[in-house]
Amino acid sequence: MPTGRIGVVGLGSMGLGMALSLKRAGFDVAGCDVAAEAVARLVAEGGRGAASPAEAAREADAVVSVVVNAVQTEAILFGPQGVAETLPKGSAFISSATMDPDVARRLAKQLEATGRHYLDAPISGGAQRAAQGELTILASGSKAAFAGARAALDAMSAKLYELGDEPGQGAAFKMINQLLAGVHIAAASEAMAFAAKQGLDIAKVYEVITASAGNSWMFENRMPHVLDGDYTPRSAVDIFVKDLGIIQDMARTAKFPVPVSAAALQMFLMTSAAGMGRDDDASVARMYARVTGTKLPGE
Question: Taking the complete model, does pTM exceed 0.85, yes or no?
């Protein structure tokens, strides 16, 4: 019988927002994170703290995993005090980490062999939309996995795409999104730094480009960080080092050329190597500015 309980593992900028959206929807939410202060924030908002993934999963209808990568996801599932120890059979594990589709398929097969369901459900939309319960979720999995996860998915999303009955499909869709997102951030950063080098008023550049054909969602969303000189991480440089790296691996396996995303990966790698890996991904513009002696706000 459904208990109305949902576990959330990973209470960073995305996971905390998702947990609070679930709480607002009436769920009894138990949250777990390696950072005690993250758990404390959930508790302050009426959620319950959990000391481990296993504790968060106990008696839960579903567990939402909002961690960085496949390695962390596997540890949360099958490591010591992992979800698979306590998640009731028939309940759903909702995996929101960005990962190689082949890895998502492997983890799903391993979990489903224990009688639990695995929903491959990467997310897009950023921390603000997570907090508002308005994420885009790219999901794939069995009918049973969708059934077990449906109420939680509805509470967290404005758009839920059901992309097939096999785990890995959602992950593949997310990687196409990440290819475009990484390329667009790198291109926007290059353009803004180049504009500054030309002596242009970059605030006016932003105004003009966002009303012109060269605009992109990433230009419009990320370049205000450059204008403000504020590189507090909303999404970090190293996220795209990881994601564009996965794309290179996938492309190499498929023998498919991806030269534009390869170039974007090099720009994120250079930015990370310059000490900005944990800063906002718009820091690619700072890397351009520092290499070329260009002045940007806050620099």
Answer: yes
pLDDT tens figures, 144-200: 999 999 999 999 999 999 999 999 999 999 999 999 999 999 999 999 999 999 999
174 is known as an active-site residue = yes
Which range among 11-15, 231-235, 281-285 has the greatest average pLDDT? Answer: 281-285
> Pick the catalytic residue: 109, 174, 197, 204?
174
Residue-by-residue DSSP string for the chain: ----EEEEE--SHHHHHHHHHHHHTT-EEEEE-SSHHHHHHHHHTT-EE-SSHHHHHTT-SEEEE--SSHHHHHHHHHSTT-GGGTSPTT-EEEE-S---HHHHHHHHHHHHTTT-EEEE--EESHHHHHHHT-EEEEEB--HHHHHHHHHHHHHHEEEEEE--SSTTHHHHHHHHHHHHHHHHHHHHHHHHHHHHHTT--HHHHHHHHTTSTT--HHHHHHHHHHHHT----SSBHHHHHHHHHHHHHHHHHHT---HHHHHHHHHHHHHIIIIITTSBTTHHHHHHHHHHT---TT-
Over residues 258-277, the pLDDT tens digits come to 999 999 999 999 999 999 99
Instruction: Give the span between the Cα atoms of 230 and 297, in whole angstroms.
Output: 9
Q: Please say whether the beta carbons of 111 and 118 come within 8 A.
A: yes
